Amino acid sequence: MASISTSDGSSMPVKELLCDVFIIRHGPNMKHTLGRAIYKKLDVMGLKAFLNSDELEFGDQEVETAIKSAWLYIPVFSEDYFQSNRCLEELSFMRKRGTKIFPLFYHVNPEDLQSEKGVFADAFHQYKKNAGHTSEKLQEWKEAVYSVSHNIGPIVKSNEDEDVLLNDITDLVPKEGKKFASASTSDGSTTRVKEILYDVFINHRGPDVKSTLAIAIYKKLKDMGLKVFLDTEILRWGDHLPSVLEKATKSASLHIAIFSKNYARSQWCLRELSFMLQMGTRIIPIFYYVKPKDLRSAEGFYADAFKQYKMRGIYRLETLQEWKEALYKVSHIIGPIVNRKEDEDMLLKNIADCVAEEGKKLPFVVEEFASTYTSSSTSIGGSKMFVKKLHYDVFINYCGHGVKHTLGITIYKKLKDMGLNVFLDSEELRWGDQLPSVLEEVMKSASLHIVIFSESCAQSQCFLQEMSFIHEKGAMILPIFYQCEPAHVHHITRIYASAFDQHKEKGRYTSKKLQMWKNALKDVMNVSGCHCCIVNSKEDEDMLLKSTLNACKEFVNAKTNEEVGDCSSHVEFN
């Protein structure tokens, strides 16, 4: 009868041993190195472990006795593991029993198992080619590997990783199954008995930002007294990742999504993002060395990731489309853009001020609007976004950072000094604001629209969409032509014509949409009482500011006196 070695070198029949832990491994490396080392560590802990040998087959009485008595299974997924039908059969049996399973990934990537790549795919291709097992049995094994690969487990790729695992194993493995504060699921995973409600959930791709920005944000928010979910800090060996993530995402009242260059290469990041939008909770995106438009672009890092998904054929087209739509929606939510170390430092410095003391008190309250600010949820594309219910007198429409940081901000400050409520996105928007919904609400409330035309305006679909909305509303417009000719705007010529040709060539917008934008530009000069300002020099800019202030004063006075008619006609513009 087969026997196993105990710590004192004696042997004991398996049937006489109540086994705590059953270790599955295959191959010479597992037999003589890591597998044996884990066995000895568990023995020191007082746990009775069964280290199966390659000579014993599933179905032998000794093996079945050990498997049925164990309350914890540790499958060691190595490159040789999937070539053993014994290992796969034991794994499938364990999963059906619903006992706790703590996987260990030895020179194997869990994502390869979840997407059927690498040694896992090669082994099953060989099984199918040899025709030694039924298709039903192969599918059963595949499902067992797929399910258990979603359980959290150490990834060992070097001798240093082995040393860390063996040093930490006493903290990772519970000493008694009955005292383990978790309950096993039908997949052999574990779920915490005590549910934790989180204030903030950090969505990110680990290899890109986990050890830098993600952990820094986590610590900042923890110092504020918030309960923050970051997988490496919260997840434990044996936790079933999908279940834990779903519960943490549901409980959080704020989600922070860190978009890095390789974000879209993680199906988990995309799944979480889609679920976050469905939940309708507030989301703050952080664009880490990427631009918001990269998330919706047909080219670049994100587009390449989706091309790979489609080529590999792992996910349904409906799923890929759902992920694309999630990226598109969140790319229109206001969030910090990190392009250099200074941006990162500024983000960490300000994040505490931008997050409420308690997640449940979100959305953010802006101090300067504290007396008149209220919040309400508005459904946008199936998700709830928060919008400021504050009346604005003037809305400044522009395109380009050069305009915003020079003429735009100057006009904004001058009008604010007059006591007017003025909207300029960089000054009024806050992290987590849904850009389309906020802009629509503000444009509806504004009585006067100052539109700053520049050479880059027609390249921006956001600017054109705003112009179309203002045009349909029939609102009072004060156009300013900043280093561009009014005729080029009115007749759609030169650089404006080139921009529309590019929109048409890319095919992102319908011909009806493009014509609607053109009509808005052409009619801007035909608005009743509209006078334009042309700025080509510093002297023009100084004259513009004076004229703009006078025009706004007249407009506000007329509105206060409930006068209806042409208010700007009282002012001459150069």
Explain what the structure shows.
This protein is an alpha/beta fold. The protein has three domains: 3-184, Rossmann fold; 195-354, Rossmann fold, CATH 3.40.50; 390-570, Rossmann fold, CATH 3.40.50. It contains 22 helices and 22 strands. Strands 3, 4, 5, 6, 7 and 8 form a six-stranded parallel beta sheet that branches. α18 links the parallel β20 and β21. α1 (28-44) runs parallel beside α7. It is elongated.
Summarize the model shown.
Helices cover 47% and strands 15% of the residues.
List the helices and strands and how they pair.
Blueprint: E1 3-5, E2 11-13, E3 21-24, H1 28-44, E4 49-51, H2 61-69, E5 72-77, H3 85-97, E6 100-101, E7 104-106, H4 110-114, H5 118-130, H6 135-148, E8 155-156, H7 159-172, E9 182-184, E10 190-192, E11 200-203, H8 206-223, E12 228-229, H9 231-234, H10 241-251, E13 254-259, H11 267-279, E14 282-288, H12 301-312, H13 317-330, E15 337-338, H14 341-354, E16 375-380, E17 383-388, E18 394-397, H15 401-417, E19 422-423, H16 425-428, H17 435-445, E20 448-453, H18 461-473, E21 476-482, H19 486-490, H20 495-506, H21 511-523, E22 533-535, H22 538-560
Parallel strand pairs: 3-4, 3-5, 5-6, 5-7, 7-8, 11-12, 11-13, 13-14, 14-15, 18-19, 18-20, 20-21, 21-22
Antiparallel strand pairs: 1-2, 9-10, 16-17
Helix pairs in contact: 1-7, 3-6, 8-14, 10-11, 11-13, 15-22, 17-18, 18-21
